[in-house]
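REVIEWER CHECKLIST
Item 1: Sequence provided? yes
Item 2: Single chain? yes
Item 3: Sequence as submitted:
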Amino acid sequence: MINYKEEIAKLIESNMETDTNIYNLIETPPNKEMGDFAVPMFSFAKILKKAPNMIASDISEKLESEYFIKIEANGPYINFFINPDIVVKDVLSEILKSNENYGKTDIGKGRNVTLDFSSPNIAKPFHIGHLRSTVIGNAIRNIYDALGFNTIAINHMGDYGTQFGMLITAYKLWGDENAVRENPIPELLKLYIRINSEAEEDESLRDEARAWFKKLEEGDEEAVSLWTFFREESIKEFNRVYKMLDIEFDSYNGEAFYSDKMEPVIEKLDKKGLLKEDDSTTIVDLDEYDMPPMLIKKSDGSTLYATRDLAAAHYRKDTYDFYKNIYVVGSQQILHFRQLFKVLELMGNDWADDCVHVTFGMVSLPDGTLSTRKGNIVYLEDVLLTSIEKTKNIIADRDIEDKEKLASDIGIGAVVFQELFNDRNKDYVFDWDKLLSFEGETGPYVQYTHARISSLLKKGDFNNETSIDYSLLKEPEEIEIIKHLAKFPEVIIEAGEKYQPFIITRFIVALCQMYNSYYASTSILTDDKKLKEARLALSFAVKTTIKNGLEILGIKAPEKM
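Item 4: Structure as written out by the authors:
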């Protein structure tokens, strides 16, 4: 498929001696009357000793290409208008040929990307607060898959720390094995809440918990057995939710996995002269970089999650030789990752710059916040099941086969879509009414558009191997839709570069709005067979792009609704 930006860059470079990267200067004008692309000339004023508008005027007169019906100066800009006859055939034939692969590229071929996302704490609820990391991380993994990278999805579970001493103590005092096996997370949560509550009155419980955690660190058989039991039962629970979301991980190596991998890292820190003693603790002083120190060891010699993160980063580089090492973790941890990456750099790791913290804001409910210790929890599974149940009620009167699956596809898709619709750094309030609406900027609206086109294609008996007369697609709406479709591969690249799935989400919504307007004003199943086939080909291209976009976001595209 023609890369119009590349063609523009070649045109200008062939008519101007410059070391400037023209491709990176190319913009999309604020309205279509100003063309499809624009190149500002400000960068060249100093070099050519001319005003930008004069440069634009001089250069534009020399530019000519079959790909553009008009190239003109507009003040300090050169504006380019795509040739509709070429773009229609080029884009639609590419989509019909590529089908489910449309939008994908191989720019990441041969390179590995590790993604650390979701990462709940074992023996604690998988609640709505985990939704963001889980869904954003999965979408970014899918984006990098579409870009041809080899992705490794890592669930770095919180399965280590003093809280397990608390939990073992609680289980020894009040636990019921059968109850935990039947309902792991709620039962373990009850124990965790109870031990925290009673420890406020009885300090000896904390002493006992510290003793059990020490036993766990030392490999005590009973402590390890109980910890393993809590971990395995927790993963079973988590996997049920991951299955609902259709998310799989390549590694479940949590914090505990790095227990025996920290000493070499600590030794390297020591050899580099980075370790200091501070009030009986061992730290890396980061005052020079306007950061508080990174704590490596407590006064009792035990390590922290920062130490384990250092070990994990080294392990991932040694194991996967990553091109990028991405952490999808909330914005509350910005300081931690700044410290982590700086210490990795100070250790002499040239790959420290390849580590990326992808932040996100908070999700909240209209009726309250979340607190594990107090038990005020909204389980993620309950949110998904509620969305499915509400969807069942909405589609109850529709004549559709397998309503259970459809309700699941729509209900879960609605939750994921709402999560991915905005810039990930923005906080948002979970909104049931907006989430499940079949109108507006929602998952059900996009899925319904896809299903509507599927029905249209079936009714029109469309065959994507039919010879299409692309010259029949001349309506302004048709041209604009096709120009929008042409942007999809670049949209995926941009979403990957910025770690922003919402760029794809907004692109799909805009596509659906354009198509639905076209559908309402245009006779697609017209009596003119050739025109009908051309318009159905356009519809097929829209459907394919919607489906491919939804799949990258981790959302199903039902054929019927």
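Item 5: Key structural point noted by reviewer: DSSP finds 22 helices and twelve strands in the chain.
Item 6: Recommendation: ____
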